[in-house]
Amino acid sequence: MPDEDFRTAARATADLVADYLDALPERPVWQPMAEADRRALLDLPLPETGVPLDALLKTVGDRVMTAPMGNGNPRFFGWVNSAPQPAGVLATLAAAAMNPSSAGGDHADVHLERAVVRWIAELVGFPHPAGGGLLTSGTSMATIVCLAAARNRAARLAGVDVRAEGLAALPPLTGYVTGETHSCVRKAWELLGLGSNRLRTVATGEDGRLDTAALAAAVAEDRAAGRLPFLVVASAGTVGTGAVDAFEPIADLAGREGLWLHVDGAYGAFGVLDPAIAHRYAGMDRADSIALDPHKWLGVPVDCGCALVRDTAELRGTFSLVPSYLRDDAAGSLGWFSEYGTEQTRPFRSLKVWASIAHRGRAGVAADIAHTTALARQLGDLVGACDDLELLAPVETSIVAFRYRPAGLDEAAVDRLNRDLPAAVQLRGRVFVTGAVLGGREMLRACLLNATTTEADIRLLLDEVRAAGAELRDRPDTD
Ligand SMILES: *Cc1c(COP(=O)(O)O)cnc(C)c1O
Fold first, then answer.
1. Is 241 in the pocket of ligand 1 (CB under 6 A)?
2. What does the pLDDT average to over 354-364?
3. Residue nearest to atom 7 of ligand 1 (CA)
4. What tens digit of pLDDT does each residue of 420-476 get?
5. Can you spell out the DSSP letters for 234-268?
6. Going by C-beta distance under 8 Å and a sequence separation of 6 or more, which residues neighbour residue 47?
7. Which helix (H) or strand (E) holds 302?
8. 26-59: b or e for each residue (b if 16 or more CB lie within 10 Å)?
């Protein structure tokens, strides 16, 4: 039972966390760990007897919180990792204290999850029939959930009960992605036994968006060869450049061809909240399913993804295996969350989602999103205006794809330089940016998710890229 020690430690934990968050902006964004500190963690001995709470807390403060990943700092622009919403941080403690399994039943966490899934659907403007979604560990898992439902429908329409008969009974199903589609789609596709060879990569236009004419041609070719097209995946913000696919023509084609339209909105779906770019998302509400990540742009502490599915019966029909001893009729006709996805014991994710959204309100969330897209566009403009920097894609959401291109280097040297730049920038500790390859070219990729990032921070990013670039060019082996 909690005693005075617990209460004292809880207060100290609150102080530790608040001090940590306060100090973050003043610290190096990231630093490599000293070998001794790394070893101290790797070689931690299993304690034979218990360690008191205050000593545990000291270890957390001295050995763990001293070596963060860097996301949380307003000058962190890496991958798609956000700063945690403070309200969400507090909520995780309360959620852990309750520690329910949000599988089903009549307790607060279950009802709260239904509410926040509806909120998420409302935020992105997706229709939400009761039961049409659930929280997951992330978009990778949400994609498995959505694609499983899509596979179930395709099989049923082909007269096959894939749950009973398995993959061998299926006609050759094909699906369509682009070269910009996140790898989690291929992973889900492979896990569902559909076979990588039948996941077609459709061409994109210059703008990185799915080329609908190429999709139509690929579908026709597969049909002519006796295969059964059933799925197209569009992106609401690609991970490389933040491009948003043109949903209307894709949805038109999907409708004509009977394809399940799945949208990967992990990073970018919430961009629809910014009036300045909302038009790019026209038609997203026509999808059959969306996978998205409150643990990215919304800043909900990791982990939290979400699957939204239009056809709830299809979703439940894909996963429900409710044995009689777990049935809960009192919970109403929706049944248990565990009938809509892969997990049985499920964490209380909804409290941190509720807190992260409710603390700001819809307007506050939208303002945070709009702040980051505006800064991203400004960064794009700054890059475009500099002779030694090159913008590689238009800034559609809050990702800026660019490269450092000082005068006098050939293509190969520019590639080498940009390949080595992210690590060199990171080591300097002032900003954090990551790299990627776009169209065969090494580039830097800055993702803006933090509403406390300022114009001075994005200017510093460019200064740091130049400074690290100069260091690299001074190395004897670079060019
Ligand atoms: C992050 C991301 C994913 C994967 O989501 P996880 O939450 O990491 O599982 C998929 N697609 C896009 C576009 C992403 O940014």
1. no
2. 98
3. 138
4. 999 999 999 999 999 999 999 999 999 999 999 999 999 999 999 999 999 998 886
5. EEBS-TTT--B--HHHHHHHHHHHT-EEEEEETTT
6. none
7. none
8. eebbbeeeeeeeeeeeeeeeeeeeeeebeeebee
Under the banding of pLDDT at 50, 70 and 90, the label for residue 478 is: very low
Mutate to test the pocket of ligand 1, among 139, 178, 349, 398 (most ligand atoms within 8 A of CB): 139
> Structure pTM?
0.96
CB of 240 closer than 6 A to ligand 1?
A: no
What is the structure's pLDDT at 274? Answer: 98
Residue 84 pLDDT: 98
Q: Which of the four pLDDT bands, split at 50, 70 and 90, describes residue 322?
A: confident
- Atom number, ligand 1, closest to the C-alpha of residue 138: 7
Measured in Å, residue 477 CA sits from the centre of ligand 1 at 36
Q: C-alpha distances in angstroms, 100 versus 109, 134, 198, 204, 337?
A: 7, 16, 41, 45, 13
> What span, in angstroms and rounded, lies between the C-alpha atoms of 416 and 443?
10
Using a 6 Å cutoff on CB, does residue 146 contact ligand 1? no
Q: Where are the beta strands (DSSP E) in 161-202?
A: 173-178, 199-202
- Fold (CATH) for 100-347: Aspartate Aminotransferase; domain 2 (3.40.640)
- Position 174 pLDDT exceeds 60: yes
Q: Is 266 in the pocket of ligand 1 (CB under 6 A)?
A: yes
Which of helix, strand or coil describes residue 443? strand
Q: How far does residue 271's CA lie from ligand 1's centre (Å)?
A: 15
Q: Determine the number of helices (DSSP H) and then strands (DSSP E) in the chain.
A: 15, 11
Q: State mean pLDDT over 127-142.
A: 96
| SS3 label, residue 438 | strand
CATH 1.10.10.10 fits 357-473, yes or no: no
Judging by beta carbons within 10 Å of its beta carbon (0-12, 13-18, 19+), is residue 64 exposed, middle or buried? Answer: exposed
Question: Which residue's CA is the nearest one to ligand 1's atom 9?
Answer: 140
- Of the ranges 10-24, 42-56, 110-124, 463-477, which one carries the lowest mean pLDDT score? 463-477
403-416 average pLDDT score:
96
pLDDT at 150: 98
Q: What is the pLDDT of residue 479?
A: 46
Domains in the chain: boundaries = 100-347, 357-473
Cβ atoms of 2 and 50 closer than 8 Å: no
Whether residue 303 is preceded by a cis peptide bond, meaning omega within 30 degrees of 0, is yes
Return the best residue to mutate from 69, 120, 140 for the ligand 1 pocket (most ligand atoms within 8 A of CB).
140
141-170: average pLDDT: 97
